[in-house]
Amino acid sequence: MFTSINPATGTAGESFAELTADEIETRVARAAEAYKSWRATDYDTRSRLLSAIADQFDANRQRLAEIAVREMGKTLKSALAEVEKCAVGFRHYAQEGPAMLATREFATAGGTGKARWLPIGPVLAVMPWNFPYWQVVRFLAPTIMAGNVGLLKHASSVQGVAAAIEEMVIAAGAPAGVFQNLAIKSGKVDALIADDRIAAVTLTGSEGAGMKVAEAAGRALKKVVLELGGSDPFIVMPSADLDKAAKTAVTARIQNTGQSCICAKRMIVHADIYDAFLEKFSAGMKAVKAGDPMDAATDMGPLSSEEQRQTVLDQIEMIRAEGATMLFGGEALPGKGAYMSAGILVDVPIDHAVAQEELFGPIAMVFKADDIDAAIRLANDVPFGLGSSVWTEDADERERFEREIEAGMTAVNQMLASSPEAPFGGIKRSGHGRELGPYGLHEFMNLKTVLG
Questions:
Q1: What separation in angstroms does the CA of 2 have from each of 53, 66, 68, 71, 168?
Q2: Active site residues
């Protein structure tokens, strides 16, 4: 049994039954059967379904957003924006997907050939709670467009969201089995990956979860895409617009209460502007209003659970014990709910375990860099390589950052964010493979060469 806990109040919400072994088998068999016919559909049919799902998300945006607020604590305005983004994502693949799948012709020494993109089968997705709709759509929209079918194992804490997504797909007229929610716990994932009817697996989550899924996929010789943790650098150089950089840094750190893999977590600031930036950034972080996520005036809701809040508090204490200074904030707020104040850590020993981890809460670490070489070294001196943001008006500096920062994504003079058009993913311990754009569509397809 799964029971949702509202992190803003600590009260229990809706409960959901876990699937039995027989029910899991029924759904997997249904997916395998659905694939036989869905793979043969034309692109127009797939596009129409994606557009219809987008319409369902639009028509139910308020209800869908409120489910996310209750289950994981994001603000209502953030949840509404997420649902709207999902509709945009479905429509992007509906409109652009056919062109992404176009057959390419080429010449060979012996004549001619062509490359065709073909589906491969049911795709299993293991998804987290922090962007409970969007991270599912990042897999689901390209899955449907590819001619594959999808099975979702969502996080235990957001089973209401998982059920709602399935409801939207069914209401849009999807054939039975094209997408199904599997209300199961993590212990059932290995057996699903090993099942011959499952063609591939994608996971967004922690390093630990990624290693387990990759190991299981490796044993089964199946394709896997992993989008794991991040400790994204936010680098500010003297030529940057300091006011804009500092204001954006606040949003980049506290979005989703700091619970985003691409939140800016390490602010790396050139020594010449360090004090000025820290003053502006501190003022912005101190002004962050934590409170009722349903209140439009709230900047930041609770963390997703009491357990998650305690994890962040423990990390703060560990690194303070090694010499880091908590300038302000970083405290559990009194009363009900998993709330904590936004805060800033300085004098952080870069080689400490916590500095090498992902701080999944509204706490920023601020580092001073003497020059661009030092900034790049600091940016790369973690095991992660997901995203990054750099602030400079110098063309040579920009070129170096684009070329030398070890990350799958770099935003220049703006906050890093995902979009349906742009490939999303990382390197190092942040995972491998890409979502979104044509690359995300092609990840789980057979690029078939035809000669003659």
A1: 26, 18, 15, 12, 21
A2: 227, 261
